[in-house]
Amino acid sequence: MLLLALGEEYLTKDEAVRLFFKNGERVVEHAIRLDDAARRLVEKAYGSSVAPDQTVIVGTKEDRVVAYAMIVSEITKTLPMTFIVGVDPAGTVIEVAVMRHEEHIGTDCAKRRFLRQFDGKRPTDRLRMGTSYQPVSGATLSCNAVARGTRKVLAIIQHHFLDRPDHVKALLQEEPIRRQRYIMGSICTITAYGDRAAVEKAFDAIQSVDAALSNYRDDSDLARLHRDRSIQAKPELLAFVSGSLAFSERTEGAFDITTGPLVRLWGFHDGKHRVPSDEEIAAALARVGWRKIRVEKDTVTLPEGVELDPGAIGKGIGVDRAAEALKNAGIARALVDFGSSARAIGEWTLGIRDPFDTDRILGHVTLRDESISTSGGYEKFFEQDGRRYAHILNPQTGRPVEGVASVSVITPTATESDALSTAAFVLQRIPDKVEGLLVPEKGEPVVTDGWKRRFREEKK
Ligand code: ADP
Ligand code: MG
């Protein structure tokens, strides 16, 4: 590969970055994800498809952005050319500088004489050859590559940042705010680049899910359903019931919110654990089965004896409501962490606990606008006569699931990940179209390809 060695390096990354930022400025590399609308506009300007995940270097000083810069690679003839495009806070090009050119021809486009034609260009200039810039003769392909990459950068800065003041605001906030509340029997932590009022609204959203679904208070919509057996359900309860039925269908009944009588029988609802007799299990099982639930329009009906337990999905629903509230408040980066279920807005890296030694971490998983839930046998269990009984029950047998130490799954929403981590625990495998990690009590952990891509193992 002698040809490759002929490539020329003009600027290192440090030298390139130095063109746009001064000593003492706060300069941060931000991983951003273009939303669908922004991505379409960027693709239109660029002329072909653009990955949603991009990195932008942003310099800030006090309460303003001083410059944006992106390092881009574009194919010239057959090999790539790498260059940096600096953009001012109003969205115009400060300067374009070539960092590396692999092709041994067309190098004249790396010279200032050519590149200065791009100074001061705006997204609306469209950068067409002949009208916006003149190529260097004999280097047309390389010159066009510069124009193409510059159009992409201008469009990304315009549509991801300048059209979205909330995204710019998030860049300026040095430290996120962090607040905690005790809801649904667990501590929920919200970390957000945004204001306190938005975070309070997010907690209120979780609180209203709790008010509808709690089976520990007698004024909840769920308590009303248990009392009256057939009610016109409010949206929260209706979403919980119909969403849960869909997960039961999808997991062949491994996920089943009618396990309430079994949860009670084994004492998992109040901590008064005991191993019931076979007769007791059979009697409780007669009251279990998701197909017993009737939903017609907004009316939910339960036969006598059937009880619903939101334990395996309620926190996920709460996390999603909180995330919606944060997004509606214009927050571009936040983490809603309910312990066993969490949802990332923007990019976040989370530790995954070792189920055999919960003080240790197996590794870190990076999420971008995704949710994760973990169901662990170590979370809630009791031991009797040398046997361990976990709080997740097999709705078919009426007994605690054995054989799984923990399972984590990644899905777009936390409602999904919460329901499906519980289902995966029962099924003892990761459901289709879901990324995850399953740690059996004995034997090797199982991971999906998508999990591997997001996961970095902790060195022992
Ligand atoms: P965590 O409570 O740590 O979030 P899960 O989301 O896995 O863990 O939920 C477990 C809870 O769900 C149990 O405590 C119980 O209330 C309920 N449950 C147990 N087995 C099932 C099941 N097969 N399907 C649905 N819910 C279940
Ligand atoms: Mg769950």
What does this 3D model show about the protein?
The chain has helices at residues 2-5, 13-18, 36-46, 112-115, 140-162, 165-172, 196-213, 221-228, 235-250, 260-265, 278-285, 314-328, 414-427, 449-454, and strands at residues 8-9, 26-33, 53-61, 64-75, 80-87, 93-101, 177-183, 186-192, 230-232, 294-296, 299-301, 334-337, 341-345, 347-354, 357-368, 371-376, 381-384, 387-390, 393-394, 399-400, 404-411, 435-440, 446-447, 455-457. It is an alpha+beta fold and 460 residues long. It folds into 2 domains: 8-173, no CATH class; 178-457, ApbE-like domains (T-fold). A hairpin with a 2-residue loop joins strand 3 and strand 4 (64-75). Helix 3 (36-46) runs antiparallel to helix 5 (140-162), helix 7 packs antiparallel against helix 12 (314-328) and helix 12 (314-328) packs antiparallel against helix 13 (414-427). It is elongated, with a radius of gyration of 27 Å. Mean pLDDT is 93; it is low at 1-5. The structure holds adenosine-5'-diphosphate and magnesium ion (MG). Magnesium ion (MG) binds next to strand 16 and helix 13. Adenosine-5'-diphosphate is lined by residues 255-257, 259, 263, 268, 309, 311-312, 315, 340, 375, 379, 391-393, 395, 418, 421-422, 426.
Helix content: 25-40%
CATH topology of the largest domain: T-fold
In total, the number of strands is: 24
How many structurally independent domains? 2
- From the N-terminal CA to the C-terminal CA, the straight-line distance is 38 Å
Radius of gyration: 27 Å
Largest sheet: 8 strands, antiparallel
CATH C-level name of the largest domain = Alpha Beta
Name the beta content range.
25-35%
Number of helices in the DSSP assignment: 14
CATH superfamily of the largest domain: ApbE-like domains
Q: Low-confidence spans: pLDDT under 50, at least 5 residues?
A: 1-5
CATH architecture of the largest domain: Roll
Shape: elongated
Structural class: alpha+beta
Please list the strands of the largest sheet in the order they lie side by side: 7-8-12-13-16-21-22-23
What is the typical, i.e. mean, pLDDT? 93
Q: Which ligands are bound?
A: adenosine-5'-diphosphate, magnesium ion
